[in-house]
Amino acid sequence: MSDTTSFDLIVVGGGPVGLSCGWQAAARGQRTLVMDRYGFFNERCGTSGAERHWRVQYTQEDLSRLTLEAVPLWRSLESRVERTLIHHIGSLWFGDTEVQTNEGQICETMRVMDRLDLPYEAMTAKEIERRYGFADLPSHYAGFLQPDGGVIDVRGTLAALYGLAQQHGCALHAGERALGIFPDADGVTIHTDRTTYRAAKVVLANGAGVNDLLGPLGASLDIRLYEMALVSLRRQQADIDFPFWFVFQQPTEEDTNLFYGFGRNPWSPSDLVRLGPVFEVNPLPDAESATGTPDPRHVERLSSWVGNHMPGLDPAPVQTSTCLAALPADPERQFYLGLMRDLVPHGEHLVVYSSGWGFKFVPLLGEICVDLALQGRTAHDISRLGPAISMEVEQ
């Protein structure tokens, strides 16, 4: 093994969580490598697109608490790079307040916000129409505006994390693919398509590709892959704009009947706004099956909903694309996060973060993964998110 390059920590996956791990580990003085098979800043996985929803409200109280714990880390990140990354344009949830969706449930989320003393304004359908330009909403629809919510600058965040990782001496290897990981009593050997490495600890933050590496060790995470449509529309009225919004509706026989949208991006000169359906249907067999072309029916469903309820937007798509979503099969969990201890041989040397809508937690997820790798524990409550739950291990 004399020709094997050694690191204290190797991170497989160079998306936002992988880069956050690389920066924070290197800043703690660890010899750190982050590798990404597609290259940094690629949009082949869940980091595609210009923005992500920022919110502090969840139906699950532990996730709301984690979001609040992420806030000072975001502020620190923004201060370090002298750039605003979270823009507080508000988070508007409305619709059928009792329906349980893959985003949560309105009534229970309001109760969580009450318990955590988070501010929000309850609103009726008529108030939502008057304030935000929606039209002809069902009369029983209601919801709330959480003023601290808004939008995250995805590409600005990636650039900030990459720059900080580089600044602290993290090795960043683009276009390098991990082929196999082999933990033992003293650490982990990683074979890639370039060479062999040795590390004391490894973080797997490679999204949908995590099972390619866990499978040979006798384990797999229960993940579903979906290619979701993204649609850009033009405003028809120059004086109209929106907070982030999400509409909760009863599912149809064909899909989940959920839609969301952003206002104009504060950092962009474009006058377009981006919207999408959240249809967890027709799962893909693997990430390589993604086409980059949205399902025409999903685009039509969104355009129809906009035409019926958003007169301030032209429902004809200006641009369309897709986002690859890797999500836990269990809708009650947001992601898999934790040590592989007792799940694979010598799993105490492996940390896993995979799947889910995790962008709002990025600096916190980096901190937690590095805590677990270096100390075997974290002060943050992630007990419900560990990979031992809903996991299959071959005996």
Automatic annotation (TrEMBL):
Needed co-factor(s): FAD
The keyword Hydrolase belongs to this UniProt entry's keyword annotation: no
UniProt key word Flavoprotein: yes
Domain of life where this protein originates: Bacteria
Pfam families named among the record's database cross-references: DAO
Gene3D superfamilies, sorted: D-Amino Acid Oxidase, subunit A, domain 2 (3.30.9.10), FAD/NAD(P)-binding domain (3.50.50.60)
InterPro entries attached to this UniProt entry: FAD-dep_OxRdtase, FAD/NAD-bd_sf, MTOX
Record keywords: FAD, Flavoprotein, Oxidoreductase
Domain (FAD dependent oxidoreductase) ranges: 8-372
Ranges in coiled-coil conformation: none
A GO term, aspect molecular function: flavin adenine dinucleotide binding
PANTHER family named among the record's database cross-references: FAD DEPENDENT OXIDOREDUCTASE DOMAIN-CONTAINING PROTEIN (PTHR10961:SF7), PEROXISOMAL SARCOSINE OXIDASE (PTHR10961)
Name recorded for this polypeptide: FAD-dependent oxidoreductase
Organism listed in the record: Nocardia panacis
Lineage: Bacteria, Bacillati, Actinomycetota, Actinomycetes, Mycobacteriales
